[in-house]
Amino acid sequence: MIAWLQNLNALTGGLFLLVTFGLVAVRQTQGCVRLFVALSVLLGVSAFFLSAIYQTWHLIVIGVVDIVTKAIVIPWLLHRSLHDEVITRREVTQVLNIPTALLIALALAIVAYLLSQPLLAVGGGAAIGVNLPIGLAGVLIGGLTAAVRREAVPLFLGLLAMENSAFFAGIGIAPEMPLIAEISIAFDVLILVLVVSVLTRTVHEHIGTTEVGALTVLREDPTR
Amino acid sequence: MFHRILFNLIQVATVMAFAPLVSGVTTRCKEIIQSKQGPGIFQPYRDIWKLFHKDEVVSDRSSWIFRFTPYLVFVTPIFVTLLIPVLTDYPLFFAFMGDMLGGGFVLSLGGFFATLAAIDTANPYGPVGASRTRMVGFLAEPVFMIVFFTVSFVAGSTIPYIVQQRWVTPLANFFEPSHVLLMLAFLMLILAEGGRLPVDNPTGHFELAMIDESKSLEYSGRGMALVKWGGHMKLFVLLCVFLNVLVMPWGLAHEQTLGAVLLAIPLVLFKILIFVLVLVVIESSLAKLRLFRIAEFLGAAFITSVAAMITRVFAT
Amino acid sequence: MNLILVPALPLAAALVSVLPLGRRVAPTVTVLAGSAALVLAVLDALHVVADHSLVAIAGWVELDGFAALLLLLNAFLGFTAALYSWGYMAAHEADAGRMRSYFAHFNLFVFSLVLVPVLGQPAFVWIAIEFTSLFSVLLVAFDNTRSALEAAWKYIALMFMGAAIALLGFFVLFWAQQAAGGGHYSWSGLRVVAPQMPLVLVFAAFLLILVGLGTKVGFVPMHTWLPDAHSQAPAPVCALLSGIKTTNSLYVVLRLAALLPIASVLPWLRVVGLISVGVAAFLLLQVRDYKRLFAYSTVEHMGIVCVGAGVGGPGGMLGAMAQIVSHSVTKSFCFYAAGATLLAVGTREIASVRGLIRTSPVAGAALLFGALAIGGAPPFAVFLSEFSIFRAGLEQGQFLVTALLVALITVAFFGILMHVNRMVFGAPPDSGSAERHALPTTCLVALIIAAIPVLVLGVYQPVSLHALLSLAASNLAPSPAP
C-alpha cells in the first residue's frame, strides 16, 4: 500500500514538474492562470498522499487550505481586481524566446536534482526523494519565469509558483511543522495577492499598460 | 519454428489489411464530431483498389528515386512490423533483427526517400512540403531518442518485447512518473510524425499549408496507391508501438497457439479504436499551429521526455 | 503582557486611522501609539538587561538580548518616523483620504516591524518579515508617479522571490532540527540542539536563507531593488525602510549564522559583507539622486555589520551590534534630513541643488550633519562602532579584511561627502520652478530627537545600553564545534 502511495505521489511530483515547465512555455495570461491552478491542485493532492504515507492529519488540513486559497480564491481575486483586458491578453512577451527559456529551465531542474543529492543522503521521511528535488527545481524555475517575463500577471504567477514549490518541498521534508504556521503562510500569500493586484491596477491606471518590463527609468546612467 | 513464421505472416497480414480501416474510422469519426456524415469506413480500401486500376503518369524530369520510392514507403512499415509486438507478447522470428532504434531508423528511411522524391519532380510545392517535413523530423529526433533511451533505461533492454514485459507485471510500475510522462511525450510525437493536428492537417487541400501530404502530390495510379497504403501502415505501426508497449500492454496473445493469436486481432483493433477516439477529440479541439510554433510544441515534448528521464534517473 | 502590547498598539492605531474621523485624528493617534510603544519597548529592554530574557508565551513570544535590542530600535524609529510623518504629510498631501491611507499603511508597517523581534518561532518570523515587505509596497508606490510604481514593482517582485527561497530554507531548518532529535521549533530550541544538527542540512538552510533574506537585506548582487525603493518612498518611510527593515532581515540571517560552527560560517559572512561594502562604495560615487546616495550607504552599512559579525570573537560581534544601533539612528536622521531638503528645494537631483545652507539653513545643516555622521566621521556614533569593528578585526588577525574594509569605507566617505558638499555649499541657483515648502515644526522636532542618539552615542555609551549590547553579542556566540 505504501508503495502504491509513493508511486502515486511520485506521479504527482512528475506532473508538478511538468506544469512548472509549462509556466515557462505558455504564451497566454489565461493559460498561466490555469497552469497555476493546476499546480496548486497538484500540491494539495500530494499533501493528501503524504498525509497517508506519514500518518499525520496536519497535511490533510494543509492540502484543503491550499486548494481553497490558491486554486479557488486567488484566481477569483485576480479576475475581480484586474481589468478584463489584463487577464485575457493573448500574446505574452518575454525577454528570451520560449525554446531557450525551456532549455534553461531544464538545466535548472537537473541542477536542483544534483544539489538535493547530498541533502537526501542525510535521510528523512519516505517521500523526500520526490518532494525535495522537485520543490527545489520549482523554486528555481519559478525564479526564471519571474526573471524573463515582461508582463505583470505572468511574472507574479511565477513568483507564486516559487512559493508553491517551496511548500511542495516543505510538506515532504517537514510534515510535522506546527499547523498554525503553515496555515498562516497560506493566508500571507493571500494578502500578497491582494496587495499585488492593487499595485497592478494602479500601474495599469497610471501607466496604461501592465508591461512592467518596459519600466526602466530608474538607473545609474552616466550619459543621461 | 513453423508456428513462429506463420504468426509473423499473420502479423504482417493484419497490419496490411487493417491499416486502411483504421484511417477510414478516424476520418469518419472526425466528420461525425463535426456534425457531418463523412465517407464510409471502408472508403480507403475502395480508393486503393481504384488507384491500382488506373494508369500512372510519371514526369520525364524525375529520376529513379521517384519510381523507387512508393515501393520503399510501402515496405518499410512492414519491416518494422516484424520487430514490434503487434499480436503476441513473446518475440517472434525476426524480433531480434533490430530494436526500437532500428525500427525508428527504418521508418525514417522511408520518410527520407519520400522527401527526396518530392523534390525530384519539378512541382514547386513538393520541396516546400519536403523542407517542412524535414524540419518537423529533425525537431522530433531528440524526443524520439530521449524517449527510447528512457524506456530502455527503465526496462534494461531496447527490444520492444522485453520492454513491454516490464510495464505489465507489477501493476504499480504503470503509474511511475517516468512512464506517464513518457506516454505524454510519445503522444505528442505521434501527432508530429503522423501528420495530425495540431502539427499538420491531414485533410487539407491547400498546398501552401501542407506539410506531410505534399509528398504524395505528384503520384498517380499504382504509385499513389502504394504511397497511400504505406502512409496508413506507418500510422498503424506507430500506434501499435505506442499502445502495445506503453499505454495498454495487455490483451496480447500469451500462449503459442493459433487460436490465441487470432483472438488477439480484434483486441488490438479494439485498443486502436479507443485511441482513435482520443485522437479525434484532440484533433477536433485544437487549431493548427503556426509553422514556427511547431518548434515550441516539440520543445515541450522534449522537455516532457527529459523530465521523465530525470525523475527516473534521479529517483531514490 | 506588555510584550504583546507593543505590536498591538500600532495595529490598533492602524484600525483607527482608517476611520474617516477628521484630518488630525490619524496622525495624532499614530504618534500617540508610537510613543506608548517606545516607552513599553524601553521598559522591556531594561527588563531583559536585568533578567536576560522576557517571556510572554514560552516558545512563541519571547525576547532575549538581541531581540530586545532590535525591539528598542524598531520602536524608536517608529516613533520618530510617526512624528516626522505628521508634518511631512501635512505639507505634502492635501487629500484627506490619501492621508488616512498613508497613516493606516504606516501603522501596519510599524506593526509588522515590531513583530519581527517579538516572535520566537522562525516560521512566524518569516511571516512577519513578509508582512513588513507587503505593508510597505503601497507606501513605496505612494506618489503614484511612473518611477515610484516601477520601484514598487521591482521591490515586491524581488522581495517575494527572496521570501520563497527563505521559506524553503526554514523548512530545511525544521528538518535539521527533527534529524537532531526534535525539540521546540524556536530560536531558543534551535540553539539547544545546534551541535547535533547534521551539518549539510544546517548549511543548506543557512545558504538558502542567506540568499533569500539577503535579498531583503540588500546584499550584493541582490540589492538592485534597494536604491529604487528606498529613494522613491516618502522620507519617513525611507527612514524606516533603510534604518530598520533591512536590519530586521539581517537579524534573522545572523541568528542562523549562530547555529553553525564557527569555522564554516565566518568566511561566508566576511566575503558577503566585503562584496556589499565594495560594490556599494563604488556605486555611491556616481549617483544623481541624493536619496539613492543614502540608500547605497545602507547597503554598505549592512555589509559592514556582516563583516563585523564575520570577524569573529566577542569583540567583532559586539562591534556589529553597536554598528546596528548606530546605523539605525544615523540613517533615519539622514533620511529625515533628505526629506527636509526635498521640502525645501522640491527636487531629488543632486545637480540641481546648490547652496542649500543659504536657501534653507536647517535642511542644509541637517544634511551635512547626517552625511558626516553616516560616513563615519568622529564624533558621531558610526565612527565609534566602525572603529570597534576595526579593532576586533586586528585582534582576530584578520588583517586583509580590516585593511579592505578601511579602504572601502574611506571611498564611501569620500563619495558621500563629495555629493553633499556640492549640494550644501556654493551659490544658490536662481529661483527654480520646483515647489518649495517651509519645514513643518514636527519635522524639526523629529530631526532633533533623531539627532540626539547620533551625537550622544558618539561620545558616551550608557551602561544599560552597553549591557544590552553585550547580552545581544553573547546570544549570537556561535555554538561550539561538534
Q: What's the layout of helices and strands?
A:
The complex is a heterotrimer of chains A (224), B (316) and C (482).
Chain A (H helix, E strand, L loop, with lengths): L1 H24 L3 H26 L3 H24 L2 H4 L10 H23 L7 H21 L3 H22 L5 H29 L17
Chain B lengths: L1 H32 L9 H10 L11 H20 L16 H21 L4 H31 L4 H9 L8 H17 L27 H27 L10 H28 L7 H21 L3
Helix pairs in contact in B: 1-8, 1-9, 2-8, 3-4, 3-8, 4-5, 5-6, 5-7, 5-10, 6-8, 7-8, 7-10, 8-9
Chain C lengths: L1 H17 L6 H27 L2 E4 L3 E3 L1 H28 L3 H23 L3 H19 L5 H34 L7 H7 L5 H19 L7 H8 L2 H23 L4 H23 L5 H22 L1 H33 L10 H4 L1 H15 L5 H15 L3 H26 L16 H19 L3 H13 L7
Antiparallel strand pairs in C: 1-2
Keywords for this entry:
heterotrimer; B: 316 residues; mainly alpha; C: 482 residues; two-stranded antiparallel sheet; globular
The topology string of helices and strands of chain A comes to HHHHHHHH
Assembly of the depicted chains: heterotrimer
Share of helical residues of chain C: over 70%
**Uncertain stretches of 5 or more adjacent residues of chain A:** none
The largest β sheet of chain C comes out as:
2 strands, antiparallel
First-to-last CA distance of chain C? 38 Å
Task: Compute the CA-based radius of gyration of chain C.
Answer: 21 Å
The number of distinct helices of chain A, counting runs of at least 4 residues, comes to 8
The percentage of residues in β strands of chain C lies in under 5%
Instruction: Count all strands of chain A and give the number.
Output: 0
What is the terminal-to-terminal distance of chain A?
68 Å
Q: Give the uncertain stretches of chain C in residue-range form.
A: none
Outline the biggest β-sheet of chain A. Answer: none
